[in-house]
Amino acid sequence: MSSCNTANPPMSPKESRGFPLSRTVMTKTECLPAVSRFDSFHIQSAISTASLKGEDRSCFDTTTVASALPTVALFAGVFDGHDGPDCSEYCRIGMIPHVTSALITSSPESPTTTKPTQESLRKLINSSLISAFKDCEEHFAKHLPPPALSRASSTSSASSPPPPDPPPASTLSLLKQILLCRCGARLRRGGTTANCILLNVDSSENISAFVANCGDSRCITDVGTGSSSDLANLKFSNISEDHRPTSRKERTRLRSAEMRGEVNVVRDHMKTTRLYPGGLAVSRTIGDVSLTKAAIATPEVTECEVALTDDMPNVRFLLGTDGIFDTMETREITEVIRAEEEEKGERLNAKDLAKTVLVKCLEKSGISDDMSVLVVDICKGKPPSPTLGPDTVEVRLD
Q1: Residue 7 neighbours by CB under 8 Å, 6+ apart
Q2: 373 has which bridge partners?
Q3: Within the chain, where are the H helices?
Q4: What pLDDT score does 296 carry?
Q5: DSSP 8-state code for residue 135
Q6: Which residues lie below 8 Å from residue 287, measured CB to CB, with a gap of 6+?
Q7: C-alpha–C-alpha distance, residues 26 and 390, integer Å
């Protein structure tokens, strides 16, 4: 994501984002671990990527966050770094521990056998996601590693079954050391957008999706549309709202910041509205602590209820960085997926959906930014046989 202003000579439309257009692009699509511990549904996920600058990152977890809140089925996110990959790399490593730590900290201090109400659980998840994003920025700015986590959560009651074991800490510790050593004395620079999803499942297997967004990565969903008997009715809609200086909500907040002398909002010669000092093209971001204070790390959290039926056997969430949504708007993505599914006569699975969206974006405009698509597909019934390994596809541009 080209969020910081750089001096570049005039370029063609396909190169207007500030990086030369590659004529051949290698994409990688891989399935992520399935969630199959529920009786009535399972969750399949996949991610597809194409890299130009190497600043996009992602995270995916089905056990660690659940050690703090056993009703959590999945946590995943995409991070689009700018001014280098330091901050997106930190979030790839640190967001899951920060979310887990925030859930533990925000939970009642004393264990209780009383089940939390739906409203109290909603507030707990919302506040924990907001705290995790802010804690990520604070730790990043202060050169601190992510929090260390204990196996057990203070939210677990005496009568609750033990939470699943978190993954071995050796890999995470090694990644922390790599990050600290790689950045060295200049730790750390730049920033990142973040778009994350948390799936919560209650004892009756009712599913709630919480989407936390900071910046201009985006989450869309086809919930309630495009049933197996009516593929032509498919429609993806936005769950998150892009945080750019031109958006209505952000303009109100930025005007107040301008009056306090915290920021100058300027439209540059490329007709991109930016925040100065720093030249950021987003109004919310993790990191960028040496730039304007008006670019905050507070995410907007949106909740979405998921209902699976015989006619609507699956619901999909698609998280993408701005390299995707600057190329195709949500409406265009809907049209692409609808055409593919009508041709095949069935809904695309997570892996095919992620690969289709990425390849169609590349075919439309080439690559002038990193592109990442993460798909979470909640499907009725038990999972099919294991999916094959990652696909690597070469896309040749006209």
Answers
A1: none
A2: 48, 320
A3: 86-106, 118-141, 169-183, 248-259, 322-325, 330-344, 350-365
A4: 95
A5: H
A6: 86, 87, 137, 140, 141, 188, 190, 191, 192, 297
A7: 13
**What's the rounded Cα separation, in Å, for the pair 337 and 356?**
8
* CA gap 228, 239 in Å, rounded: 22
Q: Distance (Å, rounded) from C-alpha 393 to C-alpha 359?
A: 9
Q: Are strands 264-267 and 273-276 parallel, antiparallel or unpaired?
A: antiparallel
91, 106, 168, 347, 354 from 132: Cα distances, Å: 10, 11, 22, 35, 27
Residue 114: band (very low, low, confident or very high) from pLDDT cuts 50, 70, 90: low
Q: Given its phi and psi angles, is residue 163 left (phi above 0), alpha (psi -120 to 50 degrees) or beta?
A: beta
Query: Does position 185 have pLDDT exceeding 50, yes or no?
Result: no
Query: What are the b/e assignments for 96-124, b being 16+ CB within 10 Å?
Result: bbbbbbbbbbbbeeeeeeeebeeeebbeb
Give the contacts of 51 (CB within 8 A, at least 6 positions apart). 370
pLDDT of residue 201 exceeding 60: yes
